[in-house]
Amino acid sequence: MPSKSSGQKPSYLGLLNAIAVGESSAEPVFLAWADRTDDAQLANTLRFVGMREGEHGKAFAKRMLELGYEVREGDYGGNDEQMKIAGSRRSDLRKFEELGFGRGISDNDVFDTMFTDKNIDPITGGLLGRYIAEERDSARRLRADYERLQQTDDVQKAARKAAKSAKKSSARKPAAKSPAKKAAAKKSAAKKVGAKK
Asked: What pTM, to 2 d.p., does this model score?
Protein backbone atom coordinates (compact mmCIF):
# COMPACT_ATOMS: atom_id res chain seq x y z
CA MET A 1 0.00 0.00 0.00
CA PRO A 2 1.51 3.38 -0.99
CA SER A 3 2.29 5.71 1.92
CA LYS A 4 4.74 8.40 2.95
CA SER A 5 6.84 5.86 4.85
CA SER A 6 7.13 3.67 1.75
CA GLY A 7 8.29 6.67 -0.26
CA GLN A 8 5.46 6.21 -2.73
CA LYS A 9 2.77 8.91 -2.78
CA PRO A 10 -0.77 7.50 -3.24
CA SER A 11 -2.24 8.45 -6.62
CA TYR A 12 -5.59 9.13 -4.93
CA LEU A 13 -4.22 11.47 -2.26
CA GLY A 14 -5.61 14.57 -4.01
CA LEU A 15 -9.09 13.04 -3.99
CA LEU A 16 -8.92 12.32 -0.26
CA ASN A 17 -7.72 15.86 0.43
CA ALA A 18 -10.47 17.44 -1.69
CA ILE A 19 -13.16 15.43 0.12
CA ALA A 20 -11.71 16.22 3.56
CA VAL A 21 -11.64 19.96 2.85
CA GLY A 22 -14.99 20.14 1.03
CA GLU A 23 -16.95 18.11 3.57
CA SER A 24 -15.52 19.93 6.59
CA SER A 25 -16.42 23.29 5.07
CA ALA A 26 -19.97 22.15 4.23
CA GLU A 27 -20.90 21.19 7.79
CA PRO A 28 -21.19 24.75 9.20
CA VAL A 29 -23.23 25.84 6.16
CA PHE A 30 -25.92 23.23 6.80
CA LEU A 31 -25.94 23.90 10.55
CA ALA A 32 -26.23 27.68 10.06
CA TRP A 33 -29.20 27.13 7.74
CA ALA A 34 -30.79 24.73 10.23
CA ASP A 35 -30.56 27.39 12.94
CA ARG A 36 -32.25 29.97 10.70
CA THR A 37 -35.12 28.03 9.11
CA ASP A 38 -38.63 28.05 10.61
CA ASP A 39 -39.41 24.64 9.08
CA ALA A 40 -38.80 21.97 11.75
CA GLN A 41 -38.68 19.09 9.27
CA LEU A 42 -36.12 20.85 7.09
CA ALA A 43 -34.05 21.81 10.15
CA ASN A 44 -33.87 18.12 11.12
CA THR A 45 -32.68 17.16 7.63
CA LEU A 46 -30.11 19.95 7.53
CA ARG A 47 -28.63 19.01 10.91
CA PHE A 48 -28.45 15.35 9.93
CA VAL A 49 -26.74 16.13 6.62
CA GLY A 50 -24.45 18.69 8.26
CA MET A 51 -23.26 16.23 10.89
CA ARG A 52 -22.69 13.68 8.15
CA GLU A 53 -20.56 16.17 6.21
CA GLY A 54 -18.46 16.89 9.28
CA GLU A 55 -18.00 13.19 9.92
CA HIS A 56 -16.84 12.66 6.33
CA GLY A 57 -14.34 15.50 6.63
CA LYS A 58 -12.80 14.02 9.77
CA ALA A 59 -12.81 10.46 8.41
CA PHE A 60 -10.89 11.43 5.28
CA ALA A 61 -8.49 13.65 7.22
CA LYS A 62 -7.86 10.68 9.52
CA ARG A 63 -7.25 8.39 6.56
CA MET A 64 -4.69 10.84 5.19
CA LEU A 65 -2.91 10.84 8.54
CA GLU A 66 -2.85 7.05 8.48
CA LEU A 67 -1.12 7.28 5.11
CA GLY A 68 1.34 9.80 6.55
CA TYR A 69 -0.07 13.04 5.09
CA GLU A 70 -1.78 16.15 6.41
CA VAL A 71 -4.81 17.87 4.90
CA ARG A 72 -3.93 20.93 2.82
CA GLU A 73 -6.37 23.76 2.26
CA GLY A 74 -4.54 24.75 -0.93
CA ASP A 75 -6.43 27.21 -3.15
CA TYR A 76 -9.77 26.51 -1.50
CA GLY A 77 -11.58 29.83 -1.34
CA GLY A 78 -13.58 29.08 1.78
CA ASN A 79 -17.32 29.06 2.34
CA ASP A 80 -17.94 32.71 3.24
CA GLU A 81 -20.53 33.25 0.51
CA GLN A 82 -22.35 30.02 1.33
CA MET A 83 -22.40 30.90 5.02
CA LYS A 84 -23.82 34.32 4.15
CA ILE A 85 -26.66 32.72 2.17
CA ALA A 86 -27.34 30.00 4.76
CA GLY A 87 -27.55 32.46 7.64
CA SER A 88 -29.66 35.03 5.78
CA ARG A 89 -33.42 35.65 5.93
CA ARG A 90 -33.88 34.42 2.35
CA SER A 91 -36.66 31.88 1.91
CA ASP A 92 -35.68 28.21 2.21
CA LEU A 93 -36.60 27.65 -1.44
CA ARG A 94 -34.31 30.45 -2.52
CA LYS A 95 -31.48 29.03 -0.41
CA PHE A 96 -31.95 25.63 -2.00
CA GLU A 97 -31.67 27.20 -5.44
CA GLU A 98 -28.74 29.50 -4.66
CA LEU A 99 -26.75 26.83 -2.82
CA GLY A 100 -27.62 24.12 -5.35
CA PHE A 101 -28.76 21.58 -2.77
CA GLY A 102 -32.15 20.68 -4.23
CA ARG A 103 -31.06 19.07 -7.47
CA GLY A 104 -31.18 15.47 -6.26
CA ILE A 105 -29.27 12.74 -8.07
CA SER A 106 -28.66 12.60 -11.79
CA ASP A 107 -27.91 9.48 -13.83
CA ASN A 108 -24.26 10.52 -13.92
CA ASP A 109 -22.82 12.23 -10.86
CA VAL A 110 -19.39 13.25 -9.66
CA PHE A 111 -19.07 10.02 -7.66
CA ASP A 112 -19.15 7.77 -10.73
CA THR A 113 -15.48 8.37 -11.50
CA MET A 114 -14.08 7.98 -7.99
CA PHE A 115 -13.18 4.32 -8.41
CA THR A 116 -11.46 4.64 -11.77
CA ASP A 117 -8.12 4.69 -9.92
CA LYS A 118 -7.13 1.01 -9.72
CA ASN A 119 -4.55 1.71 -7.01
CA ILE A 120 -7.05 2.51 -4.25
CA ASP A 121 -6.31 0.31 -1.25
CA PRO A 122 -9.08 -1.71 0.49
CA ILE A 123 -9.36 0.55 3.55
CA THR A 124 -9.65 3.71 1.47
CA GLY A 125 -11.99 1.90 -0.93
CA GLY A 126 -14.33 0.97 1.93
CA LEU A 127 -14.30 4.55 3.19
CA LEU A 128 -15.05 5.90 -0.27
CA GLY A 129 -17.88 3.42 -0.78
CA ARG A 130 -19.61 4.48 2.41
CA TYR A 131 -19.03 8.16 1.60
CA ILE A 132 -20.60 7.84 -1.86
CA ALA A 133 -23.65 5.95 -0.56
CA GLU A 134 -24.23 8.51 2.20
CA GLU A 135 -23.76 11.49 -0.12
CA ARG A 136 -26.37 10.12 -2.49
CA ASP A 137 -28.72 9.48 0.42
CA SER A 138 -28.18 13.06 1.66
CA ALA A 139 -29.02 14.35 -1.82
CA ARG A 140 -32.27 12.35 -1.81
CA ARG A 141 -33.23 13.72 1.62
CA LEU A 142 -32.57 17.30 0.57
CA ARG A 143 -34.44 16.82 -2.69
CA ALA A 144 -37.49 15.48 -0.82
CA ASP A 145 -37.59 18.58 1.41
CA TYR A 146 -37.08 20.86 -1.59
CA GLU A 147 -40.01 19.29 -3.44
CA ARG A 148 -42.20 19.45 -0.32
CA LEU A 149 -41.47 23.17 0.07
CA GLN A 150 -42.13 23.73 -3.63
CA GLN A 151 -45.54 22.06 -3.38
CA THR A 152 -46.45 24.15 -0.32
CA ASP A 153 -45.34 27.30 -2.11
CA ASP A 154 -47.39 26.40 -5.20
CA VAL A 155 -50.52 25.85 -3.06
CA GLN A 156 -50.01 29.18 -1.28
CA LYS A 157 -49.50 31.01 -4.57
CA ALA A 158 -52.68 29.46 -6.00
CA ALA A 159 -54.63 30.46 -2.87
CA ARG A 160 -53.36 34.05 -3.05
CA LYS A 161 -54.22 34.23 -6.74
CA ALA A 162 -57.75 32.91 -6.09
CA ALA A 163 -58.27 35.38 -3.23
CA LYS A 164 -57.06 38.27 -5.38
CA SER A 165 -59.35 37.23 -8.24
CA ALA A 166 -62.34 36.94 -5.88
CA LYS A 167 -61.62 40.39 -4.48
CA LYS A 168 -61.53 41.94 -7.96
CA SER A 169 -64.75 40.17 -8.91
CA SER A 170 -66.61 41.40 -5.82
CA ALA A 171 -65.35 44.94 -6.41
CA ARG A 172 -66.96 44.97 -9.87
CA LYS A 173 -70.40 43.91 -8.58
CA PRO A 174 -72.83 46.64 -7.38
CA ALA A 175 -73.30 46.64 -3.64
CA ALA A 176 -76.43 44.80 -2.52
CA LYS A 177 -79.14 47.01 -1.00
CA SER A 178 -80.08 46.45 2.63
CA PRO A 179 -83.74 45.56 3.47
CA ALA A 180 -84.28 49.10 4.81
CA LYS A 181 -82.98 50.64 1.59
CA LYS A 182 -85.11 48.30 -0.47
CA ALA A 183 -88.24 49.29 1.51
CA ALA A 184 -87.42 52.98 1.14
CA ALA A 185 -86.96 52.54 -2.62
CA LYS A 186 -90.36 50.79 -2.91
CA LYS A 187 -92.05 53.56 -0.89
CA SER A 188 -90.44 56.21 -3.10
CA ALA A 189 -91.57 54.41 -6.24
CA ALA A 190 -95.12 54.09 -4.89
CA LYS A 191 -95.24 57.85 -4.18
CA LYS A 192 -94.12 58.61 -7.71
CA VAL A 193 -96.87 56.38 -9.12
CA GLY A 194 -99.47 58.06 -6.87
CA ALA A 195 -98.30 61.52 -7.95
CA LYS A 196 -98.77 60.65 -11.61
CA LYS A 197 -102.41 59.57 -11.13
From this structure: 0.78
